[in-house]
Amino acid sequence: MAADGGRLSAIGDPERDGWRPGPGRRPFFALCEETDVPGTGHGLSKGASLCGIPDDRLTVYRGPFDPARDTACPDCRVRVRVLGDPGPTLEDRLGHRVRGAVPGPLRGELLAALKQGAQVGLWVSGPAAELVRRHARPERIAEGGALVEAVVRAGRRLGLARVVHGTREFLVFLPQDGRPFVARAEPGP
């Protein structure tokens, strides 16, 4: 369950054929664990883990299942390889949203980084003030801060994605009632 009580779901659809991402891309399945047996990461698909655990026995997290982790379920790891790429990756979905973002040099830099294989490290949504405080940390924002302040003042829900590429950290703000925009943060812990 998501923190706000809503269910999270996987972005990938393993039954869909014909779509293949570019080089360096990975399929996206939401990370989940069996509620009564924590510690092993599973990939969430439609209504169950990739290895068959029903979703009512799973705790779903706001992040991708990584089959390369030591704690990944071996059956889910194999299933990801067998299924191939289930659909657009998280990076492809973010790139689509960024193309419609407020124009500027950061938007262009981020699109280029995503094309080069940069990966989304975080994508969350919730109340704007809380997300900015916890995940964007205003004191670290080096470019694009004025737009961030306006979104926080509006007090609405917000989506926030973080992409680190080399020494650059991009923050993508996805306001509920507005156009997405890109900011840059100083690299941090």
Q: Could you walk me through the main structural features you see in this protein, from its secondary elements to its overall organization?
A:
Helices cover 26% and strands 29% of the residues. It contains 5 helices and 8 strands. The strands form 2 sheets. It has a 5-stranded antiparallel beta sheet with strand order 4-6-7-8-5, sandwiched between helices. A 3-stranded antiparallel beta sheet has the order 2-1-3. It is globular. It starts with 29 loop residues before the first strand and ends with a strand.
Please supply descriptive tags for the structure shown above.
189 residues; alpha+beta; 5-stranded antiparallel β-sheet; 3-stranded antiparallel β-sheet; 5 helices; 26% helix; disordered N terminus
Helix content: 25-40%
The overall pLDDT, averaged over residues, is 80
Global structural class: alpha+beta
Biggest pleated sheet = 5 strands, antiparallel
Indicate the multimeric state: single chain
Distance between the termini: 27 Å
Order of helix and strand elements from N to C terminus:
EEEHHHEHEHEEE
Q: How many individual helices?
A: 5
Q: Which of globular, elongated, flat, extended, rod-shaped describes the shape?
A: globular
Poorly predicted runs of 5 or more residues: 1-24
Q: How many runs of DSSP E, i.e. beta strands?
A: 8
Q: Trace the largest sheet across and list its strands.
A: 4-6-7-8-5
Radius of gyration: 17 Å
Could you tell me the strand content as a percent range? 25-35%
